[in-house]
Design a protein that fits this description.
- By secondary structure, the chain is of the alpha/beta class.
- It has 16 helices and 19 strands.
- The strands form three sheets. A 15-stranded mixed β-sheet has the order 4-3-2-5-6-8-1-9-18-16-15-10-12-13-19, sandwiched between helices. A two-stranded parallel ribbon has the order 7-14. The chain has a two-stranded parallel ribbon with strand order 11-17.
- Strand 12, helix 12 and strand 13 form a beta-alpha-beta unit.
- 45% of the residues are buried.
């Protein structure tokens, strides 16, 4: 009897594995990703299947029979791309302030929250229950008691340490709280791997914030990695409505409540011309919009492109775009942390450096602390600030938001910020890099092999 059950189990398991491999192939993702998952489910019995269910399955992107296209010959092709792949309209009139690190960012956000009269919408991947988190929470509670509509979205994985007492306290004061994709048995399955990595604050529909800084005191006081260095953006003007729309779409996901009252979209009154586009992407988007934008920015660079990212595990297309740009004479510079909060990611990142150096890309290791900034500057004419890292998970799986800015003054300031990062970095020299121990190179290659799984 036992042998019969064993045969039946083996047959069923084989059928499941074949079905999973077919599903992996049908998803049509990067070949290395598909190969890694196929080998995992084949050679790691049961556990490999569980890992795929948790981390590997990806819902199909939205497909339209006739995707709407915007063809405007008077527009710069890059702008038209973002209009087509994410409906990111060009927001022409804005006031933009670049906020450096936690001290400037938290002070500005606190001031905006204090001035709120109608609504506060706040969305973060990580919201810590520490000195900074408690201070922001107290502001939200106070404004809710004053009659301001306050809504908070936090990611269930990124903010898993938030206590029930903390959340109950917020709700008791009148704050509406939404948890993005909570992990509850048995419904966790593949949702565990697709997170909301956005950082958005919108106050009264008139002021918005975004960037790489989470609600955590490590941006003020540091941790074992040192001080966390990052950039945020304060926006007034036409682009605020785009952040509001992204938040309200996420609010519908977490609460089931659709909010489209015109009072959430008041006229800005800003007359200064500072053009920008706000691009959101997620696993359910029709296109990998931010990834496509990065690709277009890299391939369109004529003189210089400078990138800072804490996690560098690019897709094949982005990696090749960087190499080609360098080979055709563009000054390509990439700044990554000398130390990382994820050893596996750091090893995988290091595995890409060899190919970059051989193509002439300049790589810098930031040594003044932990560089968490996600910035791109191209030719002094365009810059990007946002939440998306230059890695596959961020660009393909997470919900992200990035701004693409065409205002020369703001681009110049962000370019100066990148120059400051380089000034506090050590350039990787090819001879030194290529001579590192063979064992270390093998570990890095192994980390690169498994990085698509996680």
């Amino acid at each position: 009897m036992a042998s019969i059950l064993s045969v039946i189990f083996s047959i069923i398991y084989t059928i499941v594995i074949v079905a999973v491999i077919v599903l992996v192939i049908e998803q049509q993702r990067e070949p290395v990703w598909s190969f890694a998952w196929a080998m995992t489910v084949i050679f790691i019995p049961v556990a490999g299947l569980i890992l795929f269910i948790l981390f590997g399955y990806r819902p199909a992107r939205k497909r339209l029979l006739a995707p709407p296209r915007i063809e405007r010959s008077e527009r710069i092709p890059f702008i038209t791309l973002l209009e087509n792949n994410s409906d990111a309209k060009l927001a022409l009139h804005n006031n933009l302030d670049v906020l450096h690190n936690g001290d400037q960012t938290f002070a500005s956000i606190a001031q905006a929250l204090e001035s709120a009269r109608e609504s506060i919408h706040i969305e973060y991947y990580i919201f810590c229950e520490d000195e900074v988190g408690n201070y922001i929470a107290e502001q939200l509670e106070r404004k809710a008691r004053e009659g301001v509509e306050v809504r908070l979205i936090f990611d269930a994985v990124g903010s898993w340490k938030l206590s029930k007492e903390f959340i109950s306290r917020l709700r008791a004061s009148g704050v509406e709280v939404g948890r993005f994709s909570p992990i509850t048995f048995p419904y966790f399955t593949h949702y565990l791997n697709y997170r909301n990595h956005r950082k958005i604050v919108v106050v009264d529909g008139r002021v918005a914030y975004t960037g790489g800084i989470n609600i955590a005191e490590r941006y003020l006081k540091g941790d074992t990695m040192g001080l966390w260095y990052d950039v945020h953006l304060r926006v007034e003007g036409d682009a605020v409505a785009d952040f509001q729309r992204l938040f309200l779409a996420d609010w519908t996901l977490v609460s089931g409540q659709t909010l489209n009252d015109p009072r959430y979209f008041p006229p800005s009154g800003v007359t200064r011309q500072a053009p920008m586009q706000v691009v959101g992407s997620s696993v359910s988007s029709r296109w990998s919009a931010i990834s496509q934008a990065f690709f277009a920015a890299i391939t369109g660079a004529a003189r210089t492109i400078t990138i800072s990212t804490p996690y560098f595990i690019p897709s094949t297309s982005l990696l090749e775009a960087l190499k080609v740009a360098a080979l055709k004479g563009v000054d390509v510079r990439i700044v990554i942390p000398a130390r990382s909060d994820s050893r596996l990611v750091h090893w995988a990142t290091c595995s890409f450096v060899d190919g970059l150096l051989s193509a002439g890309v300049k790589v810098y290791l930031y040594t003044a602390g932990f560089l968490h900034s996600k910035l791109i500057a191209v030719d002094g004419r365009m810059a990007s600030v946002g939440t998306a890292n230059m890695d596959i998970r961020s660009l393909e799986d997470n919900s992200e938001v990035s701004t693409f800015i065409y205002d020369r003054e703001t681009v110049a300031e962000l370019t100066t910020t990148l120059e400051d990062y380089i000034a506090h970095s050590r350039r990787v020299m090819p001879d030194e890099w290529y001579s590192r121990p063979q064992g270390q190179r093998f570990i890095e290659a192994l980390a690169r092999l498994v990085s698509p799984l996680f």
